[in-house]
């Protein structure tokens, strides 16, 4: 079958190769497939028995003009048994296919979803969420019709056509040749149109991904869109993406329709051709009425799958287009792979060392170049730098959300690439700038830190951090719902919930990215105290946006344009009058201005 031009989101190769690989990654569909195909074949062959029985009815039951009632009844009963048996067998094979297909789709969705989670932040940054969602949902869904019937239809219909052809040849070789000659142009047209259909279905899959990207962006950014009065351009963008999707889908539908209609047309031509040739040959052909009726019925049995095939081709090309995208996703190597014999981190606060680290996001200049420093065990070090200087990127490398292009990150003296992920995640906890909260209560959000924690543990986590008053100020306390992404809470409150979550996890090493958004002074004081208590006795690396945090740190590391340019204590760096002193002055002026305003 045809090869579809590849793009970066899509697996290249012929449809056949894609289908083979697709089946290989879905073991569930192969379970019991032999029995299902046998049942489907039996159902198909049941249909073939009917023309033969009808021929017998005509030729034996009505022989020499008189009615053989006994034979007629026996043959009639046999036809009824065959029809009921065939229906039951067909039903059973369809049920088996549907359940195997749902199991396989479920397995593929879960597998693709798990794979996305194993990919590094570098991949996540490069790929839009809409595209990822479309791979796990709608791209996988395209396989449904193919798996439920389309795949097996190739085998069953092919066998039924072959059997019908043999049956027809048994009754009349020349008439069978007429059928074959008349059907050849259709086969040629099918081959040509199938290629175009494959390209059209691939385009539909790409447009669906675009659509999900635009929709998820416009829904998530609804507040910004309204605030800036850009509803009209945003609607235009959404509308044009929907229109592009509609156009590609219409083209695929049009080609599918042409294919189906051509098959119907050729089916009619074949029947007319057979009748015309049959009449032309006339009684000299030497066939009984029963044989002619049986031949015509066999022609319809032969043509049924031909028209079905056009639909099956449509399902197949649609499935191949979806599979290309899902398989391309599964083919992305896990760039933060689990080490084969993962090492456990030693107990107690670990030292952190960053050695000659260079890292760049895909298709971008390096975000970090040759960065080296150490955080001694149990010390609090602060990272400072202008926006875009690489602070957050550095924290991601230390937490192994991505691996450096060059250099190494050591925790407790062990290369992070050699540490078992479970050990790393339990000992090193990251609190990002804008922590993600799930749409549930404060209690449930904090419990993500330690799933076995009791309600009392969670309440204690807040009180340990000096945030008991915050909890008491909430009318529903721990049961307060936080809304989608925590939008019912202020930025400072979200950070506080994230700190309680980190405290509950009880890590030996903390990586904190301070919230940049302004928080009200009451929460600010609570946050400062919570941070002080949380970092006590632990190794910590804090990205400081409020430079008051740097004043208290054991050491300040200053990044500029992805390079480490200064390090030392606050007083020394301030006195040196370099990059840090400039940043500190700007921060002081900004906070004084903010206070004066
Ligand atoms: N996902 C990404 N894809 C491509 N480039 C990125 C990505 N994230 C960050 N960068 C680039 O990497 C550089 C460092 O970004 P980073 O977020 O680490 O800076 P930062 O110092 O934490 O900034 P801020 O203080 O604003 O949070 C910047 O040039 C930024 O544009």
TrEMBL record:
Main location: membrane
TM region positions: 33-58, 70-92, 146-166, 173-192, 252-281, 293-315
Entry keyword annotation includes ATP-binding: yes
Membrane topology: Multi-pass membrane protein
Keywords per UniProt: ATP-binding, Membrane, Nucleotide-binding, Transmembrane, Transmembrane helix
Domain ABC transmembrane type-1: 34-318
Matching InterPro entries: AAA+_ATPase, ABC1_TM_dom, ABC1_TM_sf, ABC_transporter-like_ATP-bd, P-loop_NTPase, Type_1_exporter
Domain ABC transporter: 352-586
Subcellular location as annotated: Cell membrane
PANTHER family in the record: ATP-BINDING CASSETTE SUB-FAMILY B, ATP-BINDING CASSETTE SUB-FAMILY B MEMBER 6
Protein name: ABC transporter ATP-binding protein
């Amino acid at each position: 079958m045809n090869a579809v031009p590849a793009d970066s989101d899509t697996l290249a190769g012929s449809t056949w190769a894609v289908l083979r690989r697709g089946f290989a990654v879905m073991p569930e569909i192969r379970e019991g497939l032999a029995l299902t195909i046998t049942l489907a074949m039996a159902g198909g062959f049941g249909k073939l028995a009917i023309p033969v029985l009808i021929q017998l009815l005509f030729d034996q039951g009505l022989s020499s003009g008189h009615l053989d009632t006994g034979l007629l009844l026996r043959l009639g009963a046999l036809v009824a048994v065959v029809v009921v048996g065939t229906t039951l067998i067909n039903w059973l094979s369809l049920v088996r296919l549907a359940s195997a297909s749902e199991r396989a789709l479920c397995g593929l969705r879960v597998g693709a979803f798990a794979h996305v989670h194993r990919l590094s932040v570098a991949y996540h940054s490069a790929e839009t969420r809409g595209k990822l969602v479309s791979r796990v949902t709608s791209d996988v869904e395209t396989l449904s019709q193919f798996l439920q019937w389309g795949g097996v239809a190739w085998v069953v219909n092919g066998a039924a056509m072959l059997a019908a052809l043999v049956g027809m040849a048994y009754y009349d070789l020349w008439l069978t040749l007429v059928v074959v000659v008349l059907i050849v142009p259709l086969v040629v047209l099918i081959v040509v149109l199938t290629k175009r259909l494959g390209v059209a279905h691939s385009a539909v899959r790409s447009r669906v991904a675009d659509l999900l990207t635009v929709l998820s962006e416009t829904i998530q950014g609804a507040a910004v869109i309204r605030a800036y009065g850009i509803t009209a351009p945003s609607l235009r963008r959404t509308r044009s993406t929907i229109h592009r999707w509609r156009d590609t889908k219409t083209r695929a539908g049009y080609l599918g329709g042409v294919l189906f209609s051509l098959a119907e047309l050729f089916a009619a031509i074949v029947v007319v051709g057979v009748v015309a040739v049959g009449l032309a040959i006339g009684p000299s052909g030497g066939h009984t009425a029963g044989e002619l009726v049986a031949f015509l019925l066999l022609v319809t049995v032969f043509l049924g799958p031909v028209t079905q095939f056009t639909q099956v081709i449509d399902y197949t090309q649609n499935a191949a287009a979806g599979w290309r995208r899902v398989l391309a996703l599964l083919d992305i190597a896990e760039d933060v792979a689990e080490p084969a014999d993962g090492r456990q981190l030693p107990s107690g606060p670990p030292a952190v060392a960053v050695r000659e680290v260079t890292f760049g996001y895909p298709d971008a200049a390096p975000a970090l170049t040759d960065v080296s420093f150490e955080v001694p065990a149990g010390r609090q070090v602060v990272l400072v730098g202008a926006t875009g200087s690489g602070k957050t990127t550095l924290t991601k490398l230390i937490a192994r959300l991505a691996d450096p292009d060059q250099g190494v990150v050591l925790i407790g003296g062990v290369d992070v690439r050699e540490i078992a992920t479970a050990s790393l995640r339990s000992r090193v906890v990251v609190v990002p700038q804008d922590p993600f909260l799930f749409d549930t209560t404060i209690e449930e959000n904090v419990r993500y830190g330690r799933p076995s924690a009791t309600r009392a543990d969670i309440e204690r986590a807040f009180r340990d951090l000096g945030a008991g008053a915050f909890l008491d100020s909430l009318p529903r306390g721990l049961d307060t719902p936080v809304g989608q992404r925590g939008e019912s809470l202020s930025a400072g409150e979200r950070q506080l919930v994230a700190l309680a979550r980190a405290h509950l996890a009880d890590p030996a090493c903390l990586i904190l990215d301070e919230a940049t958004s302004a928080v009200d002074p009451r929460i600010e004081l609570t946050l400062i105290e919570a941070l002080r208590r949380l970092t006590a006795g632990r190794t910590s690396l804090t990205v400081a946006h409020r430079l008051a945090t740097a004043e208290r740190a054991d050491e300040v590391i200053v990044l500029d344009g992805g390079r480490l340019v200064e390090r030392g204590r606050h007083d020394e760096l301030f006195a040196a009058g370099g990059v840090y002193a400039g940043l500190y002055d700007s921060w002081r002026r900004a906070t004084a201005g903010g206070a004066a305003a």
